[in-house]
Each structure stands twice: as structure tokens, then as C-alpha cells.
Amino acid sequence: MIVDFQHHFTPRELFRADPDAGNKTYYDANGVPAYSFHSLLYDLDEHIAMMDEAGIDAAVLSCAEGMCGTPEACRISNDRADEAARNYPGRFIGIAHAHPLGGRDAFREMARCRNELGFHGIVITSEFGGNIDRPEMDAFWAEAQRLGLYVFIHPALRLDHGAQFDAYDLARSVGREFSLIQAVVRLINSGILDRFPDLKVQIAHLGGGIASMLGRIRSFQDKDFWGTTGNPRHGCLPAHDFDHYINERLIFDTAGFAGDVRSIRTALVELPARQVVFATDYPQEIRERGKVKAFVDGLRALEMGDTILSGNTGLLIPGA
After folding, report:
1. Rounded to an integer, what distance in angstroms lies between the CA atom of residue 41 and that of residue 44?
2. pTM (global) more than 0.90
């Protein structure tokens, strides 16, 4: 069974643009491109047509407006994903949207998504007015672990410090990937994965392309060498070596590279294929049916392609 674990939709009532006005990109307060709205985001019939052509059995629906969104946006995202799953049996799978710092109301929504709607995961962003390793996040990690919800960390749509990405669409092309890389380092070195040993975490975009940085990151785990031993922020180390978490605890997805299999192939030099799940980022970074099919075909041609496409689905959806 091939499941697309990063497949986006936006209910029409959450559109910021005229749904029929074509592609419309919105900018943040710094004038940085933040998100593009277009009709493919709500045209689920076209999603199904694409999936049929590409050979994708099912897709996990996440909504940008519900990622660390308002309670109303989260609930609408959850209800519409559940509605899509019922209208297209076996083809769409919902994922919970709830703000991780939303307190009891957010936790109630998480429980509703798990216990009433049957969702298996929850989506948050890599930063949202602060970093994911802040102490007050522990209640969220604990609740996700208690409910058995895997946490899908999507790149932040609006970076906390976006001013430096003031040209060339740098925030979306590379800024978001840096945000994912630092999220991985924070997850590991802060001890979150040690404190919550049953927590499952899906990291988008192959960890922001972290494979090419692992040699450098490993070096800076030697706190004696770099003179940070004992520093309360920079000298922190997890219970195991860094690669333990890359190889055993984190799950990475193949979205974020616009369907370019070369990026996947190079990442697999460092990231174990057994910890990688299939994802497309449709219909944002990749929108054409034929291009999605070419991506699936390209992955299948890799040595461990079938493992990524279908063999690892059970890592996030038990029994799938």
C-alpha cells in the first residue's frame, strides 16, 4: 500500500484568496513569500485522479491553515479531513491539527481526533513564535505519546526570523529547510526523545536535507573539543549518540524536493531507507499528475525504493 504522508489540502472556507482566482501567493510582514493558494488545494476529485495515475493508494491530508493554527481553523481542518475520508473511502486519511501550546482545549481536540475520528498523527510546524524544545512543550509531547499520535513536523510557513530572507524567495527555498534541521538537532540534544521513549516523530523533507550536514553536526557533538562542556544551552547532549536517533527514532519523508529523485538518492547515503516514508508535497511543490507519477517511478527504481514507497507505511499507521 502506497501512502503519501505529506499531501496538502485547504478547505474553501479557510482560503485567504478567491478560490477561483488562480494562483495567489501571500507575503508575511517582512514582504517574504509565505504561502500560495490555488484551486488544486480543495479540488479533491483532481487529487484522486492524480493518485490513480501515479499509483498512490491513499494520502494523509494536512492543511496549512490548521498547522499551529487557531482553534477554529484546526477544527475545520480536522472536520474537513474526516469528511474527505468518508466521501472517498480508503483514499484519504486525516491527521490532527491542534496548537501544541493550546492547553486543555487543544488536548481535547487531539483526543477527539484520535478517539472519535480515528486519526493516527498530529501535524505541527518546526517553529511558531519559539522553538520546539521550549520546556512548556513537554505537556504536548506527553499528550501525543499518551494518545499514540505520531507528530508530523512540517516546516514553518512563516519563519520566526524571516527578515534575512528578504529576496529571491529564500525563506521557502532554503529557510524552511534550515528550520527543519535545527528542529531535528533540538529534538535530539534537548532530550525530548529520551524523556518520551514511545513518541514517534515524522520529519518533513528528509529533515530539511540534513543528510548533507550530518558530518558537521556530529563534529559539534564533541563538546570538549569545541569548548562548550558544562554550558547549560550549548553543552547539552542526549542519552545516546546522535546517529542513534537518526537511525532508530526519527522517521523522515521524501517530500520537499519537487519530485527530484536525485535528492532522495543522495540523502540515502546517510539516512537509513528503513526510516524513510513516501511523501510528495502535492499540490504545492509538485502539482502535475505526470510529474507525481515520474516521482513514484523514480523512487521505485531505487535499490530500496519499494521499502520507501510501501514497506515503511506501518511505521506511522499500524497495520497499513
Report:
1. 8
2. yes
